[in-house]
Write a structure and sequence with these properties.
With about 240 residues, this protein is of the alpha/beta class. It contains 8 helices and 7 strands; from the N terminus they run E-H-E-H-E-H-E-H-E-H-E-H-H-H-E. Strands 3-2-1-4-5-6-7 form a 7-stranded parallel β-sheet, with helices on both faces. The structure holds NADP nicotinamide-adenine-dinucleotide phosphate (NAP). NADP nicotinamide-adenine-dinucleotide phosphate binds next to helix 1, strand 2 and helix 6.
């Protein structure tokens, strides 16, 4: 028996990296998964890789019309929803003094505003007893120079999880934050050269970045009844980087 048998899950930004690893695991555990991403080609490839019990819905998690289209598709195909993993997010380094309005608006627009509306627009479809998880970042726990916009736009989730679980307690919907540290994904490859990646790894007790599958298993824990008594929490999966 799978941990998500018969459940319907939405994962935003699920076409590569840790969310794709999670989508595969959720399907292996019995869920039907809706994944999103902006690039149709990457979405098609992810749907092909997952192979079964998956629907790809092209869209930008920062765009409210795209979110409406996503949930219209979920409603039409499945009628309701049990698990939401709001994973779409991102950032770029910009030290204080050099931060532009465009950078602030882009990353707060996706990580904060986009995440809030991803959750809010899902609520009419949510079954009682469901689970919401949002991907944070250990950048909001540490003091990493250059990352204040990104860290700030993710830090909001910790407050939201506590408030929303209180607002949703009559429906027994749990809300948690999954907070990765450095994880080897395509985004990492795009953003950082080898020297920067080695510098990040020097901050991780085991000296190696996380793998997408190590975040997927943490997501499965929060999505499933394995975490039925865990609510309003931040699960930090960063190899101990910010515990030091
Ligand atoms: N990688 C890390 O080390 C790390 C560490 C801490 C936290 N995080 C967080 O973990 C999450 C996933 O990170 P990742 O590195 O796996 O991401 P990623 O490789 O940048 O993105 C994963 C997928 O999300 C999609 N995506 C990106 N922006 C989107 C948007 N606005 N709307 C819909 N889909 C979008 C991308 O497809 P398209 O480009 O086609 O849209 C991509 O396939 C993010 O929230 C990130 O902030 C990452």
């Amino acid at each position: 028996m799978g941990k998500l048998d018969g459940k319907v899950a939405v994962i935003t930004g699920g076409t590569t990296g840790m969310a794709l690893a999670g989508a595969k695991l959720f399907v292996d555990e019995g869920a039907h998964v809706f994944i999103t991403g902006r690039r149709q080609e990457a979405l098609d490839e992810a749907v092909k890789q997952i192979g079964r019990n998956v629907t790809g819905v092209q869209g930008d998690a920062a765009d409210l019309d795209d979110l409406d289209r996503l949930y219209d598709t979920v409603k039409r195909e499945k009628g309701s929803l049990d698990v939401l993993w709001a994973s779409a997010g991102g950032g770029e380094p910009a030290p204080l003094g050099e931060i532009t309005e465009a950078q602030f608006d882009t990353w707060f627009g996706l990580n904060a505003r986009g995440t809030l509306f991803t959750v809010q627009k899902a609520l009419p479809l949510f079954n009682d007893g469901g689970s919401i998880l949002m991907t944070g970042s250990n950048a909001s726990l540490g003091a990493f120079p250059g990352w204040s916009v990104y860290a700030g736009s993710k830090a909001v989730q910790q407050a939201w999880a506590r408030i929303w679980l209180n607002e949703l307690k009559d429906r027994r919907i749990r809300v948690n934050v999954l907070t990765p540290g450095q994880v080897a994904t395509a985004k990492q490859e795009e953003l950082f050269d080898e020297a920067t990646k080695r510098q990040f790894e020097s901050l991780i007790p085991r000296g190696q970045m996380g793998r997408p599958d190590e975040i997927a298993t943490a997501a499965l824990f929060l999505a499933s009844d394995d975490s039925s008594y865990v609510n309003g929490m931040e699960l930090v999966a960063d190899g101990g980087t910010t515990a030091l």
